Amino acid sequence: MSDQAVASKQLSAIATGICGGVAGAVSRLVASPLDVVKIRLQLQTGRPSFGFAATQLFQQKILDRKYNGMLHAVSMIIREEGIRGLWKGNLSAEYLYLSYGTVQFLTYQQMQILFSSIGDGRDDKLIFNKTLQPFLSGAVCGATATVTTYPFDLLRTRFAAQGEKKIYSGLTHAIKQIYNQEGIGGFYRGISASVLQIIPYMGLMFGSYEISKKSFRLLEVSLLLSANSRVIDTSIIIKVGDKFNFYITE
């Protein structure tokens, strides 16, 4: 089977979900150290030094900072916690990205199928603007994936934030502690802000992707037609030239 035939073949809903989950898990495994460093830098207090003279209070704030930049944070984490420290919370993060990617792509595909079936019904009241469909699909799939997998995101953040002094000894211990101390709502702290952020983000991402894809397809067709028209024009000129030469030689 040719590459073009393989690319054009539609995947099943389950296959699409699996592909999305695997993609999310692999990308998470690679990017985990940067995520841990980012969270540590975000949570620490104090102000960075910019190379100018500081007051005594300002100097004290600088001394209070544990990490003085990304590279320093990486070296400190490795020194104090070992290389595994850069992957703290990675187990819950893998669950997060595996499930998030699966739910996201599965929901997006189902939304596309839904819009397609609505369009086939020819009910003008139900047909959405085709340009807005990918935006809406992206917003829905992003919100659905965020709500479904948010407890894993919260666990990932808490694991990444803890340094040498461990609050949670493991995933099971963290789940028990959060549930006992904060209740079921503890697993969804900050979810409203996350959903409000992800709706426009995913809507614009998928919408921009579909618009860009259509634009490139139109460009390819335009270039193909332009190339074909040049070939036709050239053949016409040759034919006319041949006819002209025929009459001249007569």
UniProtKB/TrEMBL annotation:
Pfam families for the chain: Mito_carr
Keyword Ion transport carried by entry: no
Recorded GO CC terms: mitochondrial membrane
Main location per the UniProt record: mitochondrion
Annotated keywords: Membrane, Mitochondrion, Repeat, Transmembrane, Transmembrane helix, Transport
Solcar repeats: 11-114, 129-215
InterPro entries: MCP (IPR002067), MCP_dom_sf (IPR023395), MCP_transmembrane (IPR018108)
GO biological process: transmembrane transport
Membrane topology field: Multi-pass membrane protein
Cellular compartments annotated: Mitochondrion membrane
Superkingdom of this protein's organism: Eukaryota
Family according to the record: Belongs to the mitochondrial carrier (TC 2.A.29) family.
Name of this protein: Mitochondrial carrier
